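Support request, please re-run this one:
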Amino acid sequence: MEHRDGRTAPPALGVGMVGYAFMGAAHSQGWRTVGHVFDLPLRPVLAAIAGRDAHAVRAAADKHGWAAAETDWRALVARDDVHLVDICTPGDSHAEIAIAALAAGKHVLCEKPLANSVAEAEAMVAAADAARARGQVAMVGFNYRRVPALTYAHRLIAEGRLGAVRHVRVSYLQDWLVDPDFPLTWRLQREHAGSGALGDLGAHIVDLAQYLTGELLVGVSAQLETFVRERPRLDGASSAPTGLNAPAAPTTSGDTRPARGPVTVDDAAVFTGRLASGALATFEATRMAPGRKNALHLEVNGELGSLAFDLERLNELSFLDHREPAATAGFRRIVVTEAEHPYLEGWWPPGHALGYEHTFAHQARDLVEAVASGTDPVPTFADGLQVQRVLAAVEESAQKNSVYTPVQAVEAVVR
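Re-run finished. Output below.
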């Protein structure tokens, strides 16, 4: 294949995606865009997308530019025109799909969190290691690493601009579960999601804390809470809901309210941690913070300065050099839109802002380059396993930590 200017087009990399909802749409945007922005060694081709509902997956394929639609992910994995499998399904299917795709000789991208348990994540790492010996690569999709401001923050910390890190504090706040009548979707069922705010949001902030500092968390102390313990079932039945779009049915004669079912995951997680160097970290993840839509805030304090970031101003980074004279010292705003900043060489002139969807194009670029060069993409499945172990430690800590009643608290103080 040749370009119009006579240049030979790079070889095709057939991409197959499993899942087509929110993350499927975001990943589709990345795959569809990346080759138009960056000069790549391979040419991503949207070969096929898979989902159980034939009508819905065909509609998603037409909307997002996928050439074919499958109703069985196994058929997608078996396709000769699919060289890389992108997994955008709920966590309960990540391990099965990823392991099968790797065994079939495909490269794999899997959305975070890597799995629903440490055991599943370990099995995925073992499969990825075996596939690596055959020249395949596997990556977990922590897209916030690809926000240019955060990639740049990682670079500044690695260069020693903050000196030794002393504190990391990260919060990720959303409000979409505040309404107690929000329905019982799969994200609120442990058998499908693994955990609640902890896995959905906490996985991101754990990964960012470790990515930015270049250190691993070595200990945590945690509390988890589920504030709304029952929600309307999507099918109105007494068993687990079977479809996200199933109609609600009356619970009793004359009662039009849908049946309610148990929420089996956390609504919120708060925990402290210690990094390998001894630096302290604090984390908060919740889907019950009114007015907070997708508010991810972080700050890193070191002996020489500080960095701060707000996802709702994702083209900006705040930086303080503590060595400057006190009379003029202060946080300064860095607008991360220069061509010298990470990923910006392919986009717009300085000052023209990027958005959330661009992180998926950056993720696709990094993975395509790793496939072409035969190098390990980051974050690897092993990195995803490390995050999974932290999440498991948070849950274990929360189960062990005592919660005092008011009387017990008073008695504890008196003693």
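DSSP finds eleven helices and 18 strands in the chain. Residues 238-252, 408-415 have pLDDT under 50 and may be disordered.
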